[in-house]
Design goal:
By secondary structure, the protein is α/β, with parallel strands linked by helices. The chain folds into two domains: 211 residues, DHBP synthase, CATH 3.90.870; 98 residues, 3-Layer(aba) Sandwich (Rossmann fold), CATH 3.40.50.11030. It is built from ten helices and 16 strands. The strands form two sheets. An eleven-stranded mixed sheet has the order 1-8-2-3-7-4-6-5-9-10-11, sandwiched between helices. A hairpin with a 6-residue loop joins strand 2 and strand 3. The longest helix is centred in the last third of the chain and has 17 residues. The termini are far apart. The structure holds threonylcarbamoyladenylate and magnesium ion. The site of threonylcarbamoyladenylate has 29 residues, from strand 5, strand 6 and strand 10.
Length: 338
């Protein structure tokens, strides 16, 4: 394919992107969570191009992004009342809800499943693009397994020559992907991927909110993944990510005894890096800031050819759970407690 063109977030360029999508092409698009690789969700040939560009396994389903609430019943059926309560509260925004799919959603989009994950994004560029085109299937715009992109340049790095265009809509606000939930019954939710719509926030509207075991532990052998993404290696830079759980003085002690020239540390803004024997970067001081920065930092550290990166573990409540989950996966679920 020819070079990927870089589009601005002007109305004219969003229109160009919409035409590309209606014509069956793939476009990199900003959302409030991370950049996505968008294509017409209802066109199997277009959707296949997303899988090819990412190198994504065909059984890992794509989220379908909508513009208006009446598109929900076109895509899915047996929608519980709780779905609409949560849509009212959290849409447009970083929440994906899984429901049984209608035939209009191709099996290519749903990764062969009979369900579909639906999200109404809030980013104005993404909203306008969907309004001008169709429901848009969009995974994160990284190559499969690598940290998600939160800036247009990340998408160019991963996708140049593989997709038609990228719209530069600036830095993504949240920085981690949407919360993905399914419905156990009328009043019980299962979180399959934590995000910026937190367990605490969801608990206000449901009798019970279950955090799936696979969020904090590797998927048990023999268990069918409730979300296929759980099966695959994720978010990993080239450097080895080592997650260290503990207070800062203990973190320092561990690093002092276990680092060399190619080691980097990722610590809180409030930590004093001067005590460390190696290079360091900071990634924020609370869950929201850390979510905003984490993927960009992992990419920056890779660009510096680090071999090993020690990350000071985030808190595990609120948005911190989403950051912790991404880092756990990047670290292959190994945590060093200090
Ligand atoms: O914030 C986001 O959700 C971003 C932006 C672009 O919207 N998209 C995103 O998509 O993160 P992706 O494909 O990188 O991650 C979607 C996750 C995968 O782990 C997938 O397995 C799961 O959601 N998923 C999608 N549809 C599903 C379904 N029908 N059943 C179970 N899991 C599903
Ligand atoms: Mg992804």
């Amino acid at each position: 394919m020819e070079n990927t063109s870089l589009l601005s977030d002007s109305i004219e360029d969003i229109q160009k992107a919409a035409e590309l999508i209606l014509g069956g092409s793939v476009v990199g698009i900003p959302t409030e969570t991370v950049y996505g690789l968008g294509a017409d969700a209802l066109n199997p040939m277009a959707v296949k191009k997303i899988f090819a560009a990412k190198g994504r396994p065909a059984d890992n389903p794509l989220i379908v992004h909508i513009y208006s609430i009446d598109q929900v019943q076109i895509l899915g059926h047996d929608i519980p009342d709780l779905f609409y309560t949560l849509a009212e509260k959290f849409w447009p925004g970083p929440l994906t809800m899984i429901v049984p799919k209608n035939d209009i959603v191709p099996l290519e989009t749903s990764g062969g499943l009979e369900t579909v994950g639906i999200r109404m994004p809030s980013h104005p560029v993404m909203r306008e693009l969907i309004r001008l085109s169709k429901p848009v299937a969009a995974p994160s715009a990284n190559r499969s397994g690598y940290p998600s992109p939160t800036k247009a340049e990340h998408v160019i790095n991963d996708m140049n020559g593989k997709i038609s265009a990228v719209i530069d809509g600036g830095e993504c606000r949240y920085g981690v992907e949407s919360t993905v939930i399914s419905f156990e019954n009328e009043n019980t939710i299962r979180i399959l991927r934590p995000g910026s719509v937190t367990k605490e926030m969801l608990s206000e509207y449901a009798d019970d909110v279950i955090v799936d075991k696979a969020i904090l532990n590797a998927l048990e052998e023999g268990r069918t993944a409730p979300s296929p993404g759980m099966k695959y290696k994720h978010y990993s830079p080239k450097a080895d990510v080592i997650l260290i759980d503990g207070d800062y003085p203990d973190f320092c002690r561990y690093v002092i005894n276990n680092s060399d020239d190619s080691t980097y540390c990722l610590i809180y803004d409030s930590d004093n890096g001067k005590q460390l024997p190696c290079h360091y970067m900071t990634y924020g001081s609370d869950g929201s800031e850390q979510a905003h920065n984490i993927f960009a930092r992992l990419r920056e550290i890779d660009n510096l050819h680090a071999k090993k990166v020690y990350v000071r573990s985030p808190e595990k409540d609120g948005v911190g759970l989403a950051v912790y989950n991404r880092l756990l996966r990047a670290a292959g679920f190994e945590v060093i407690k200090v």
